[in-house]
């Protein structure tokens, strides 16, 4: 059964936010999901781009308050 | 046959661990981008940096966001002291430091004094332990910052940092501790200690030179001293040294309590052997509250500088003072501050062990040391 982890990246600048998301995904198994909280603006654009470049799939993306909640699925 | 070399100056710096060198080499190949760039190369560098940040944060029980990477212990200490003073008002700032601090603490504090800050030097006892009543009196008179090292670089005395932090908290002062000697050797959890600022570095734990970090408690207001691109949350501008930082993280991950326990046994074996074998030798510092790798001994009637050179000629590398004070040809200011007198302070050697020190090395050193002391006394 795939698992879902959460990571709050609010206030973490680019590209440290992408780096932390990638490091968290390293610890998960293929198919597991990572839900990240992101600031609006550059982080909401840069993090999904970095995840996509690393081969991880964007499962969902929605607004939450002033930021975003995005879910990525790990793919090695 | 290669002549035998025994390096016992690990409080000055350590040999790079091959596993750290491998991690740095890998980072040089894969994480050479600018860790502030948002493209793939930048993200790869940021990944190396963040991995190290998380390693250091988890080892010290803090949030990764409370770790600021610097160029080493000296910069971390400067950032802690000057950063806090400049976030307030240097002219009215009140700072105290112990009489046995490294110059990277005492000098920025003294510089603040020239800008109008109140600067207080707290005395230590004969073992190098801070005099808590004197600190409390200074706190009662009003202080903004107290800086006391976790463990001394010359005599290895471990300060009662929990008690110091508690006194600071009671009197509304921020507590900074320079933990460059203790990081990786003693448990170091700023929240448990009650420290607002903690300095650490890489090259004392078999990591690279030129890399350090400052822990700054979340919410603590302090200012940058390097200004520019706004890296590290605006508190330390400058392109991050991603391969060096990766090396720092790798070095931190290799430290262990088992390694310290092994060094403690070697330290005690060596200290007892020297004190027993060489008449007129005396241990400096506290016998109990002491770093696991430090032995500092005075040899009555012997010039430490001359003995150091004799040992060096035999391939044994030790120190007659802190690396920064070495070469100045004067007695150790730390030993003088402990009230040991000029003669004893001028006759002390520091032997600092590492993960590479073996018992047979120490047996060899003991033999050459005994000969060297006898020769020095015969020449006197």
Structure description:
Chain A is an alpha+beta fold and 76 residues long. Chain A is built from 2 helices and 4 strands. In chain A, helix 1 packs across helix 2. The longest helix of chain A is centred in the middle third of the chain and has 12 residues, at 42-53. In chain B, 52% of the residues are buried. With 380 residues, chain B is α/β, with parallel strands linked by helices. In chain B, strands 2-8-7-6-5-3-4 form a 7-stranded mixed sheet, with helices on both faces. Chain B contains 13 helices and 12 strands. Chains A and B meet through helix 1 and helix 2 of A and helix 2 of B.
Q: Give the CATH topology of the largest domain in chain B.
A: Aspartate Aminotransferase, domain 2
Shape of chain B from CA axes? globular
Distance between termini of chain A?
17 Å
User: Count the strands of chain A?
Assistant: 4
Rounded average pLDDT of chain A: 95
The secondary-structure element order of chain A is EHEHEE
- Helix run count of chain B: 13
Any idea how many domains of chain B? 2
Distance between the termini of chain B: 34 Å
Adjacency order of strands in the biggest sheet of chain A: 1-2-4-3
Global morphology of chain A = globular
Determine the mean pLDDT of chain B. Answer: 95
Pairing-aware structural class of the strands and helices of chain A?
alpha+beta
The description of the largest β-sheet of chain B is: 7 strands, mixed
CATH-wise, what's the superfamily of chain A? TusA-like domain
CATH architecture of chain A: 2-Layer Sandwich
> What proportion of the residues of chain A form beta strands (DSSP E)?
25-35%
Extract low-pLDDT stretches of chain A: none
Q: Could you tell me the radius of gyration of chain A in angstroms? A: 11 Å
SSE series of chain B: EHHEHEHEHEHEHEEHHEEHEHHEH
């Amino acid at each position: 059964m795939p698992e879902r982890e959460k990571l709050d990246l609010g206030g973490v600048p680019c590209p440290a936010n992408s780096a932390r998301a990638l490091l968290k995904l390293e610890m998960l198994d293929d198919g597991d999901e990572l839900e990240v909280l992101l600031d609006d603006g550059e982080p909401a654009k840069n993090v999904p781009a970095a995840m996509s470049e690393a081969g991880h799939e964007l499962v969902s993306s929605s607004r939450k308050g002033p930021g975003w909640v995005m879910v990525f699925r790990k793919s090695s | 046959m290669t002549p035998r070399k025994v390096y016992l100056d690990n409080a000055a710096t350590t040999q790079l661990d091959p596993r750290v060198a491998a991690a740095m080499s890998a980072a040089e190949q894969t994480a050479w981008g600018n860790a502030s760039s948002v493209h793939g190369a930048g993200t790869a560098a940021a990944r190396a940096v963040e991995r190290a940040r998380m390693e250091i944060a988890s080892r010290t029980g803090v949030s990764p966001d409370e770790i600021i990477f610097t160029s080493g212990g000296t910069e971390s200490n400067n950032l802690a002291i000057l950063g806090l003073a400049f976030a307030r008002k240097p002219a009215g700032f009140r700072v105290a430091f112990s009489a046995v601090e490294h110059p990277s603490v005492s000098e920025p504090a003294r510089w603040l004094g020239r800008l109008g800050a109140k600067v207080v030097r707290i005395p230590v006892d004969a073992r190098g332990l801070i005099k808590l009543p004197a600190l409390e009196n200074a706190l009662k008179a009003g202080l903004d910052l107290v800086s006391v090292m976790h463990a001394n670089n010359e005599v290895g005395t471990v300060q009662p940092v929990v008690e110091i932090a508690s006194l600071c908290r009671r009197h509304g002062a921020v507590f900074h501790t320079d933990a460059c000697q203790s990081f990786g050797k003693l448990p170091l959890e700023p929240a448990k200690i009650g420290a607002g600022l903690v300095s650490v570095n890489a090259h004392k734990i078999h990591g690279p030179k030129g890399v350090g970090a400052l822990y700054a408690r979340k919410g603590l207001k302090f200012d940058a001293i390097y200004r520019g691109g706004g890296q590290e949350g605006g508190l330390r501008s400058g392109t991050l040294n991603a391969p060096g930082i990766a090396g720092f993280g790798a070095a931190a991950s290799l430290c262990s309590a088992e390694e310290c326990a092994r060094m403690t046994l070697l330290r005690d074996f060596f200290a007892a052997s020297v004190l027993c074998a060489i008449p007129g030798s005396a241990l400096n510092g506290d016998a109990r509250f002491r770093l696991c790798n430090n032995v500092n001994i005075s040899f009555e009637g012997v010039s430490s500088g001359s003995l150091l050179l004799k040992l060096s000629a035999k391939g044994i590398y030790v120190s007659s003072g802190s690396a920064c004070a070495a070469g100045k040809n004067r007695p150790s200011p730390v030993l003088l501050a402990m009230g040991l007198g000029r003669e004893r302070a001028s006759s002390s050697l520091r032997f600092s062990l590492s993960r590479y020190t073996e018992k047979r090395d120490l047996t060899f050193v003991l033999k050459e040391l005994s000969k060297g002391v006898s020769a020095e006394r015969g020449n006197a």
